[in-house]
Design a protein that fits this description.
This protein is α/β, with parallel strands linked by helices and about 220 residues long. About 50% of the residues lie in helices and about 15% in strands. A six-stranded parallel sheet has the order 2-1-3-6-7-8, sandwiched between helices. Helix 9 crosses helix 10 (about 185-200). The longest helix has 15 residues, at about 185-200.
Length: about 220
C-alpha cells in the first residue's frame, strides 16, 4: 500500500498557475483541484513571483499566460530554463501571434492552448503535455511549419523582450543604473542580463554588443 501511495505522488501533476488575472487563476485552481491526479501548488500574477515559486513549490507543470504585465511568457520561460527548471510549460492564452508562438515553441514550451477551450480539453492538454506530448491549437501550425528550416542550430539566438529593452536603452547611452530605474529592476539584474546578452551574442564588450545588435537585430529593436 505504501508503494502505491509513493507511485501516486510521483505521477501527480503539480501545477503552478501564472496569470495576471486573479479570477481566472482561482477558477482554474478550483477546476484542477477536483481531479485526483492534479495538485495546484501555487498561484502567481507576475513572472518574478513565479520564478521565486518554481523551486520551493515543487511544480512539474506551469500553466502560463502570455501577457504578464511588463513581461511576456517568453521572458519567463527563458529565465526559468536558465535557472534549471525541467518541468513542462503549457501556455494558456486568449491569443498570441504566429511569430510569438514560434518563439515560445523554440524556447521549449510544450503546448499552446486557447482560453476558450472547455475544462475537459484543458485537462486533456495538461495530461498530454505532462506525458511528454505536445499540444498546439491548429491555427499555430502553419507558422511553426514555415519556420522549420530556421529552427536549426545555426539560427541566430532569439532575444527576450527585456533584452531588447536593455539594448534600446544602451543605444540611448544610458548607464546600468539608469536602465534599472527605467525597467524597475535592480542594477544587479541589469548586469546579469548584460552578461547573458554577451554570452548569447558571443561578444566581450559593450561596444561589440552594440555592433552585433545593430547588424543582426536592428529590425527587432
Amino acid at each position: 500500500m505504501a508503494g502505491d501511495a509513493e507511485n501516486a505522488n510521483e505521477n501527480e501533476i503539480k501545477v503552478l498557475l501564472v496569470d495576471d488575472h486573479s479570477m481566472f487563476r482561482e477558477g482554474l485552481a478550483r477546476l484542477l483541484d477536483k481531479q485526483p491526479s492534479f495538485s495546484v501548488v501555487g498561484q502567481c500574477g507576475t513572472s518574478a513571483e513565479a520564478l521565486a515559486e518554481l523551486k520551493k513549490s515543487g511544480a512539474n507543470m506551469v500553466l502560463l499566460d502570455v501577457d504578464l504585465g511588463r513581461e511576456r511568457a517568453l521572458d519567463f520561460v527563458l529565465e526559468a530554463r536558465k535557472r534549471g527548471f525541467e518541468g513542462k510549460v503549457l501556455v494558456v492564452t486568449a491569443g498570441v501571434s504566429g511569430a510569438e508562438a514560434v518563439q515560445l515553441v523554440q524556447s521549449g514550451v510544450a503546448g499552446i492552448l486557447h482560453k476558450y477551450h472547455s475544462g475537459d480539453e484543458l485537462r486533456t492538454a495538461i495530461r498530454q503535455v505532462a506525458g511528454g506530448g505536445v499540444w498546439l491549437d491548429d491555427e499555430y501550425l502553419p507558422a511553426i511549419f514555415r519556420t522549420v528550416d530556421r529552427t536549426r542550430p545555426s539560427a541566430k539566438p532569439q532575444l527576450a523582450e527585456r533584452e531588447k529593452a536593455i539594448l534600446r536603452f544602451i543605444f540611448q547611452g544610458k548607464t546600468n543604473k539608469e536602465i534599472g530605474v527605467q525597467l524597475e529592476i535592480s542594477e544587479g539584474a541589469v548586469k546579469a542580463a548584460l552578461r547573458q546578452l554577451f554570452d548569447k551574442l558571443g561578444v566581450r564588450t559593450r561596444s561589440q554588443l552594440v555592433k552585433v545588435a545593430l547588424e543582426q537585430y536592428r529590425e527587432q529593436l
